[in-house]
Amino acid sequence: MIASVKRYGLLVLLTLCLTGCKVELYSGLSEAEANQMLALLMLRDIDSEKQVIKEGNVAIKVEKSQFVDAVEALRQHGLPARRTESMNDLFPSGQLVMSPVQEQAKINYLKEQLLEKMLRGMDGVVNAQVSIAESVSHNRRETPVPSASVFVKHTPGINMQSREHEIRSLIQNGIPNLRAENISVVLQATDYRYQRALPVAAKPPAWWLDRKLWLAATLGLVISAVAAALLLRRRKKAS
């Protein structure tokens, strides 16, 4: 009898240990970005939490069984955002003198990042990439002719085609001497790579999961108390 009770008690304790097992999803995040990601995961009913490792370094943890859901939910919203380089990163103090070609390449790279950041600020844009190219001329007096390629990935529910003119105007005004005919824009809706097995409404709410955890813990305590009482009673009979 006592052995059976102990066996059931060990099973309950093992269940408690396995319940709530979280794995790290992303780390090295800022406080603002971590809060944004955490809010999105909570809206998707994904069990998640943030952990402050040190100042300026925050990690997001999710339930192991919901890891794929979490990655896909964040990917569909362009999170975590790609880090952009600053002027100080590309032109640090004390750097050796670079050639005009290298300097122009870095300036174009900064322009690309700035334009990408502005495009990602538009409603419905998940990710944006901008590439600036300039024609090569052997005559230094000739002004290079720039061209720009733009790729925008957006959420399926947004009619981004109606905003293509705004995107072209933004790119043209952000790059000097750029002509409208030298701008190419590709708009693509985000595809859903992973379909959840159950809709959000069909999943049990968080309070029910907490209640189940408390019930399991209470059951474990009751079984332990019963086992202790039976053991004490057996010792009294033996004495």
Automatic annotation (TrEMBL):
<dbReference type="GO" id="GO:0009306">
    <property type="term" value="P:protein secretion"/>
</dbReference>
<protein>
    <recommendedName>
        <fullName>Lipoprotein</fullName>
    </recommendedName>
</protein>
<dbReference type="GO" id="GO:0009279">
    <property type="term" value="C:cell outer membrane"/>
</dbReference>
<dbReference type="InterPro" id="IPR043427">
    <property type="entry name" value="YscJ/FliF"/>
</dbReference>
<keyword id="KW-0564">Palmitate</keyword>
<dbReference type="InterPro" id="IPR045851">
    <property type="entry name" value="AMP-bd_C_sf"/>
</dbReference>
<keyword id="KW-0449">Lipoprotein</keyword>
<keyword id="KW-0998">Cell outer membrane</keyword>
<feature type="domain" description="Flagellar M-ring N-terminal">
    <location>
        <begin position="23"/>
        <end position="189"/>
    </location>
</feature>
<keyword id="KW-0732">Signal</keyword>
<keyword id="KW-0812">Transmembrane</keyword>
<keyword id="KW-0813">Transport</keyword>
<keyword id="KW-0653">Protein transport</keyword>
<feature type="transmembrane region" description="Helical">
    <location>
        <begin position="213"/>
        <end position="232"/>
    </location>
</feature>
<dbReference type="InterPro" id="IPR006182">
    <property type="entry name" value="FliF_N_dom"/>
</dbReference>
<dbReference type="Pfam" id="PF01514">
    <property type="entry name" value="YscJ_FliF"/>
</dbReference>
<dbReference type="InterPro" id="IPR003282">
    <property type="entry name" value="T3SS_SctJ"/>
</dbReference>
<keyword id="KW-0472">Membrane</keyword>
<comment type="similarity">
    <text>Belongs to the YscJ lipoprotein family.</text>
</comment>
<keyword id="KW-1133">Transmembrane helix</keyword>
